Structure formats: C-alpha cells, structure tokens
Amino acid sequence: MNSKTKNITAWVLTGIIVFIFAASGTFKLVGGDATAEMAKGLGGANNLVILGVLELVIAGLFLYPRTGIVGALLMIAYMGGAMAVGFISGHSITLLIVIQILIWVTSVFKFPELGQRLFNKI
Helices then strands (H, E): number in the chain? Predict the structure, then answer.
C-alpha cells in the first residue's frame, strides 16, 4: 500500500472514530428518553454530562495531529471502561469490541511509529 492510500485510509478511519465519539458525547449532553434510561445505569445525569464532555474532548485530541496519540490512548482506555460497565451490567459488548478494534487499526494507520513499536521484532 502506498503512502497516499495509507494517508487517505487513516483520515477516513479517523473521521469514523471521531464521528462515533462526537455523536455519543453530543447525545449524552443533549438528553432525551434513551439518555434518561442510560443515566440510571451510569449513576445519574451528572455523570452523563461528564462522560459527554469527556468524549468530546477525547475526540478533539484524537483529531488534532499533535495530540493524536494521547487521544488514541484515552479512547482505548475509555472503551475499555465502557466494556467493563457493559460486561458487569449484562449488556452486549460486541459493538464496543468492534469500536475498540477500529480504534487500534486507525491508530496504527494514523501513527506508523506505533505500528512499528507494536509489531517489529525486538
């Protein structure tokens, strides 16, 4: 794969991930019936606002190239926490696992040095 194709793939995947996090954060901030039900499981509306703002900040960090690796690590950690909550509460975590894998793949495309550190032999 040439560098132009890798660059386009990285930006398309980045757009998808940022859209997922920004949409989720916005829905948590805006509210609604589904959000009220989610608030019960997450400990109340105050926690929902904090999580919504956190998701938007993480999406911004991931989108900005200088802070992208920090954003990627925070996304990975956030999704790990979401998986733990889903696992404990008995909800399906299949979509969360798919998003987590997508974050990892996007990170390797967006930051080639990360892929080199993870997959090269020592």
Answer: 6, 0
Q: Are 76 and 103 in contact (CB under 8 A)?
A: yes
What is the DSSP code string of 81-103? HHHHHHHHHT---HHHHHHHHHH
The domain total for the chain is 1
CB 20: neighbour CB atoms within 10 A?
Answer: 18
Quick check: pTM over 0.90? no
User: Is residue 96, in this structure, part of any structural domain at all?
Assistant: yes
Per-residue confidence of the chain (122 residues) as pLDDT tens digits? 788 888 899 999 999 999 999 999 998 888 777 766 766 666 666 778 888 999 999 999 999 989 999 999 999 999 999 999 888 888 889 999 999 999 999 999 998 888 888 887 54
119 in a structural domain? no
Question: What's the DSSP call for residue 43?
Answer: T
Q: Does residue 85 lie within any of the structural domains?
A: yes
Q: What are phi and psi of 43, to 5 degrees?
A: 100, 15
State the residue range of the domain holding 43: 3-113
